Amino acid sequence: MNLQGIASVKDFYHERTVKNKSNESTSIAINEAQLLLAEKRTSLSVMRTGIAVLALPLSVLSVLIATSKYYDFLTVMPLLVPLGVLVLILTALGVYLIVRSMIRMRRYEDLIRQIKRKHSLIAEFID
Question: Is the entire prediction scored with pTM above 0.70?
Answer without folding.
Answer: yes
